[in-house]
């Protein structure tokens, strides 16, 4: 059955490739060489060694974020992950304090991200990054353009950092290290937080902590501002809940429509918010998301992900008190 599934996926990819105008490997090499001054012979050597991975094609079509909330959150909000997170926080407390002071991002958010992404470095991915990006960039038309761009970023990253490109491992989507940075994020947001002259997110948790904090700061995390608040069960929230991630109304506009909002000392009537609906087994629960909630979705473009990270961060914070 696995072989048949792989064949079916390969046929699917081949049949749609022409529709997406996927360039040839030679065209891609020429483009990368011209735009980024990379050596053509080196690019050809790297791409010649790349292989199509049918497991990658299968994995990208069944992401966890496709699950309803009531099936999604139990994956991450576990006692085992909480204990591991508290242990990680204790071990790296000084580094987390330094990151919070420099970037304004709370320690619990940084710890939650690394815990959700890789269980503190225990599950950083088994796939060849080269094979994953090659497979998705040339054999997955729905997002081929994006992954070809990431493949180009990966080549530049490998050249800049002096990596053995065939040894890099990551997720099926090519994300790497403690915080699962894709290649473009690694190039633009990774920092050398311990000052050893290397930006190492693959084996160095100190650099990973600083880089996650830097990522959030660059995406306009607002220190001291809320992330999300639960809404009452008796409001007709479904009439104002909407898909999307960025705040799309103000607290005042919701109040003017007759909605009762929870108080928060750091916000004003003009603060922008969005009402989110999360599916439960029998109905739905509703949350008020702020700009900082939107910032979390810049890490992974899913309200489910952002809510899991936020709730886990609150578990960590409460357990530390």
Automatic annotation (TrEMBL):
Gene3D superfamilies with a match to the protein in the record: 1.10.530.10, Bacterial muramidase (1.10.8.350)
Catalytic residue positions: 117
Keyword list, A-Z: Signal
Domain Transglycosylase SLT: 24-314
Signal recorded as keyword: yes
GO process annotations (BP): peptidoglycan catabolic process
Database matches in Pfam families: SLT_2
Cleavable signal peptide: 1-18
Signal in keyword set: yes
Source domain of life: Bacteria
InterPro entries: Lysozyme-like_dom_sf, Lytic_transglycosylase_MltB, MltB-like, SLT_2
Molecular function GO labels: peptidoglycan lytic transglycosylase activity
Protein name: Lytic murein transglycosylase
């Amino acid at each position: 059955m696995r072989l048949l599934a792989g064949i079916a996926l390969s046929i699917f990819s081949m049949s749609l490739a022409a529709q997406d105008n996927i360039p040839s490997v030679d065209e891609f090499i020429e483009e990368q060489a011209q735009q980024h001054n990379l050596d053509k012979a080196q690019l050809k050597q790297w791409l010649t060694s790349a292989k199509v991975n049918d497991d990658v094609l299968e994995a990208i079509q069944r992401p966890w974020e496709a699950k309803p909330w009531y099936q999604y959150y139990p994956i991450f909000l576990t006692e085992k992950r909480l204990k591991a997170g508290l242990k990680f926080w204790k071990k790296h407390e000084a580094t987390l304090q330094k990151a919070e002071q420099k970037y304004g991002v709370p320690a619990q958010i940084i710890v939650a991200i690394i815990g959700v992404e890789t269980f503190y470095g225990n599950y950083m991915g088994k796939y060849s990054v080269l094979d994953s990006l090659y497979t998705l960039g040339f054999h997955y038309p729905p997002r081929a353009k994006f992954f070809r761009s990431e493949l180009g970023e990966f080549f530049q990253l490998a050249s800049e950092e002096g990596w053995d490109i065939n040894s890099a491992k990551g997720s099926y989507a090519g994300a790497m290290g403690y915080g699962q940075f894709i290649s473009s994020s690694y190039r633009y947001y990774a920092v050398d937080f311990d000052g050893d002259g290397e930006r190492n997110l693959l084996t160095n948790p100190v650099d990973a902590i600083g880089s996650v904090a830097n990522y959030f700061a660059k995406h306009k995390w607002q220190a001291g501002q809320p992330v999300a608040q639960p809404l009452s069960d008796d409001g007709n929230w479904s009439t104002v809940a909407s898909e999307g991630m960025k705040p799309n109304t103000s607290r005042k506009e919701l109040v003017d429509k007759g909605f009762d909002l929870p108080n928060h000392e750091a916000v004003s009537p003009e603060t922008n918010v969005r009402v989110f609906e999360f599916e439960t087994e029998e109905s739905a629960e509703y949350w008020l998301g702020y700009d900082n909630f939107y910032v979390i979705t810049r890490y992974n473009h899913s309200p489910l992900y952002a809510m899991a990270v936020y709730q886990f961060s609150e578990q960590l914070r409460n357990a530390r008190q």
